[in-house]
Structure formats: structure tokens, C-alpha cells
Design a protein that fits this description.
Largest sheet: 7 strands, antiparallel
Number of domains: 2
Structural class: mainly beta
Shape: globular
CATH class of the largest domain: Mainly Beta
Strand content: 25-35%
CATH topology of the largest domain: Glucose Permease (Domain IIA)
CATH architecture of the largest domain: Distorted Sandwich
């Protein structure tokens, strides 16, 4: 591989990918929300006259509910429209990791967003408080005694958070309460108590597979509720309940999301994460692991296209390049084959790509691509 070609390819990212945060996402830790509702205001009358406008004026922006390094993608979106409820917020069903309703004649809407993590990291994937600084947030529900096994029509273990829109936790009017419930948590993992106030990014528990889910798609099932109505936090033409996103920088969330089943089944991680930072002018260790054989390691350009004829494994500067495979025993008794490629690489990145998120992915020997993992090189 031509080393200059690699540098040129990576330089393309300077204009597209921004610096990331391990906690949640770029800029979120600096976002300070201030309640806009006057405590004496008749909030419910204002809501009833214009619910969509009320949400735009008074809702805080939310971060992703898991650590950045653990975020794989979306397992299932909030379903809109009429039966069979396949329509997602922006009408792009190609984003779907699976159709929630597979049985003809069966109604099966999905009133949540499923934030996917790696089952190979079971026991270390954490859910966090997604509300920003300035929000008054209290734990109003917690349950974690359900075992990690499938249970029909159950959300399993969960934590419910309530944000008080006027900042006053003594104002328990329903219009003042925006609630987020995080479910399918790991048994005995919840570390907060009902009545406790929590800070932004504070760990609430671990993601498991309790309730109606399974180990190989370990995810946090997150519902967003206000005035008894389930809300989709993603803004788009099919989401008529919002005129702006509930998420902090929705476009960034979309840009790092993996959602294609054909890619996600490769289950690629780098150093057991989906986002890593590497120091520039240092020799760093890279360990790629996947559930499919690794034939090549590719890089995407700023348009989401694989850079042609560029294979990281052909870089002559890689040290201690090693290929191996071994069985992985899942918590649910399943057995998987993990394919691993590791090497050491001296980073001498061009200044234009410092602090930019660069997407890497693998290609299997039969030409199939994987999900993406992101690398940020820092000084």
C-alpha cells in the first residue's frame, strides 16, 4: 500500500468528522440548559393549545444514553404511521436493523428507541443519565431483580428518570414531567435509588438482556414520555409530534449510527470498543475483533464510501501483525467464533486529521463489509 495514499485518504476527514467525547458526544458536556417555563405559568393550558410548540420551547436537548465508546448503533427505531407500523421518522426504512413486525395481521408498534451495544462486552456496557447540565432530574423508578433471560411482554429491569421542566421537583404536575425509562438492564446492576437526584452522564446501571430481548442484540430500550404520550426523539417528516429534535445534534448521532443487519452481524470492535482515541507520535496497539473472518481493514471517506484499493493491513509500517481466532462463550450459553487481527502502529498523522473521527471497517474474504468503528488521533 502507498503510505502517501493513506495520508491523503485520511486527510479527507478534516472537513467532515468533528472531535468526539468519550462521555456522550461532541459539545454536549458544554451545553447548559436553562428551564424556560415560569413556575407560575399555566403550563397545561399552553401545552393543550400547542403541544408541538410546547415541546420545542421547553424540552431540554438529550444526549445518547450510553457511553460513546459503547455505542454500536440503533437496533430498532420508534415506529410511526398506520399498521404495520414500519415507517421510521424520516421514511428511510433502509436504516432499519430489522422490521419489528414480521407476522402478517399482527399489530406490533415500537414506542421506543433501542440503543445497541456489544454483547461481547456484557457486564461492562453502562446506561447513563442523558439529560444535560441545568436539568433537575430525579430517579422515579428502579427495578433490577429480573434475571437476564427472555420474558414475553416484559421490559425487564429498568430505571425511570423524571426531568422537571420548570426546575422545581416539588411541582409534580404531569405537564412539568418529561420522563425517560431505560430498560432491559442487567440483573442486580442498578446503582441509583428512587428519589435520588442524578447528574448528567451519571451511570445508572448496566445493559443486560432481561425482558423481551436476547443476548446477541444487547441494547437499552429507551422510552421518552410526556403527558402520557410516547415520543420519538428523532425529528423527521413522519414524526408529527416534534418540530425539532429532542436530541442534542441529531445529525451527529445519525452520522455515527450503524443500522444495517448485513453489516452489524460482523460485530466489529476495536480494542473492545466502537470509538477509541490514539495518541499521535506514539506506537499504539490496534486489536480488531469480529464475528466474521477479517480479510482487509478499510477506511471510509467523507461521503461514507470505502476508499478504493486501500487496505490498512498492507501498510508496511505495522508491527507485530497477528491473525488469530478463538471461541467466545456468551453469557446465555451461546458459542461464537471471534476473528482477531492485532498490530502495533506508530501514528504520525497529518495535522488536518488530528481530533477527527475516522471510520474503519473490515471486509470479509468474500467481499462483505462490516459496521464501522471510529478512531480519533490526538496530540
Amino acid at each position: 500500500m502507498n503510505t502517501k495514499r493513506l495520508i491523503l485518504a485520511l486527510t479527507l476527514f478534516a472537513f467532515c468528522f468533528s472531535a468526539g467525547s468519550l462521555l456522550a458526544q461532541p459539545g454536549f458536556e458544554d451545553y447548559q440548559w436553562q428551564p424556560q417555563v415560569a413556575k407560575s405559568a399555566n403550563m397545561e393550558a399552553e401545552y393543550n393549545s400547542d403541544p408541538v410548540g410546547f415541546r420545542a420551547r421547553y424540552f431540554p436537548k438529550l444526549g445518547i444514553p450510553i457511553l460513546r465508546e459503547d455505542y454500536f448503533g440503533i437496533w430498532n427505531w420508534f415506529n410511526h404511521g398506520a399498521f404495520p407500523y414500519y415507517t421510521v421518522y424520516d421514511r428511510d426504512n433502509s436504516k432499519r436493523t430489522y422490521f419489528f413486525c414480521r407476522t402478517t395481521g399482527q399489530e406490533c408498534g415500537h414506542n421506543a428507541v433501542d440503543w445497541l451495544v456489544s454483547f461481547r462486552n456484557f457486564g461492562s456496557n453502562e446506561v447513563i443519565n442523558p439529560f444535560p447540565y441545568g436539568a433537575t432530574v430525579k430517579v422515579t423508578g428502579a427495578f433490577d431483580s429480573a434475571p437476564d433471560e427472555y420474558a414475553t411482554n416484559s421490559l425487564g429491569n429498568s430505571v425511570e428518570l423524571t426531568c422537571y421542566l420548570d426546575g422545581d421537583p416539588n411541582n409534580d404536575d404531569r405537564v412539568n414531567r418529561l420522563m425517560v425509562r431505560l430498560s432491559h438492564l442487567k440483573q442486580n446492576s442498578v446503582v441509583v435509588n428512587v428519589g435520588q437526584f442524578v447528574n448528567p452522564g451519571q451511570v445508572l446501571g448496566q445493559i443486560g438482556y432481561s425482558g423481551a430481548t436476547s443476548y446477541n442484540v444487547t441494547h437499552a430500550h429507551v422510552t421518552y414520555q410526556h403527558m402520557g404520550e410516547w415520543l420519538d426523539p428523532f425529528n423527521g417528516p413522519e414524526n408529527r409530534e416534534l418540530r425539532e429534535s429532542m436530541l442534542f445534534n441529531q445529525s451527529w448521532v445519525e452520522s455515527i449510527t450503524n443500522w444495517n443487519t448485513r453489516e452489524n452481524d460482523k460485530h466489529l470492535t476495536l480494542n473492545n470498543k466502537f470509538y477509541v482515541t490514539m495518541r499521535n507520535r506514539r506506537t499504539n496497539t490496534y486489536t480488531f475483533r469480529a464475528n466474521r473472518e477479517i480479510g482487509a481493514i478499510r477506511v471510509e471517506d467523507q461521503y461514507g464510501r470505502v476508499v478504493p484499493d486501500l487496505d490498512i493491513l498492507e501498510n508496511p509500517n505495522l508491527q507485530n501483525l497477528n491473525f488469530t481466532e478463538y471461541p467466545f462463550n456468551g453469557d446465555d450459553g451461546s458459542t461464537w467464533t471471534v476473528y482477531e487481527v492485532s498490530f502495533r502502529w506508530y501514528q504520525d498523522a497529518d495535522s488536518s486529521v488530528i481530533n477527527k473521527e475516522i471510520p474503519f471497517l473490515i471486509e470479509t474474504p468474500d467481499g462483505r463489509l462490516s459496521n464501522r468503528v471510529f478512531v480519533k488521533v490526538t496530540n
